[in-house]
Amino acid sequence: MTKRQKLVLSIVTALTLVFGVVPTASAMHIMEGYLPAGHSLLWGVVCIPFVVWGFISIKNTLNENRKVITVLAMAGAFIFVISSLKIPSVTGSCSHMTGTGLGAILFGPASVSVLGIIVLLFQAILLAHGGLTTLGANTFSMAIAGPFVSFGIYKLCQKLKISKLVSVFLAASLGDLVTYCMTSIQLSMAYPSEVGGMMASLIKFLGIFATTQVPLAIVEGILTVLIVIGLESFAKPELRAIGFIREDK
């Protein structure tokens, strides 16, 4: 491992130590057993093709350049750390940053489906954050819907010739918000309101989430920009290998 790679790992470790001290006792994604069995099964099945696609994408990336595994691991660690910071928001769920925008920008959204499901498994088993029965729903919202939007926003900003750091900020922030829009849809589908049905329930969930998630999305955008700046300083060859940097500056 090069000095540059060791430095990147040191930065990730430091972030883990700083953020890892936050209590994790009572907050979670959609919690264990909260969704009806049919909904849990449905979201799990929907996730399968994305996860398979993600494994193939990661395999192809590593076959092209094994050295980028350090950056890939860092992207996974970033998701784990930043999504473990939880603020109780509404019954059955919580608000927290997702960290998936970074991986989507660097490696594409399919790869993040694999990183995300690994993180969610660890959190469900070790931190009581989320659950195994709701793994499919949480994977779809945090590791599929959000990353695909982040990737799309980033590519759109590139075509519009928006500066890279602004593009990263918008991609990470909006991807975070979409994750909670999807979680709200999942909860409203499972528990439609007696008056007004699913739409009334959706409005209620979105309204409650928005108060905590909007500022968290802004913070996530800023943190993601800082991580990208650090990577461009210390892992430029790896970023060039995955196409994030196309020329020397």
Report what the structure shows.
- With 249 residues, the protein is mainly alpha-helical.
- It has helices spanning 3-19, 37-64, 69-82, 100-107, 109-126, 135-159, 164-190, 197-234, 236-241; strands spanning 86-90, 93-96.
- It contains 9 helices and 2 strands; from the N terminus they run H-H-H-E-E-H-H-H-H-H-H.
- A hairpin with a 2-residue loop joins strand 1 (86-90) and strand 2.
- Helix 1 (3-19) runs parallel beside helix 3 and helix 3 runs antiparallel to helix 4 (100-107).
- 47% of the residues are buried.
Entry summary:
The chain is mainly alpha-helical. It has helices at 3-19, 37-64, 69-82, 100-107, 109-126, 135-159, 164-190, 197-234, 236-241; strands spanning 86-90, 93-96.
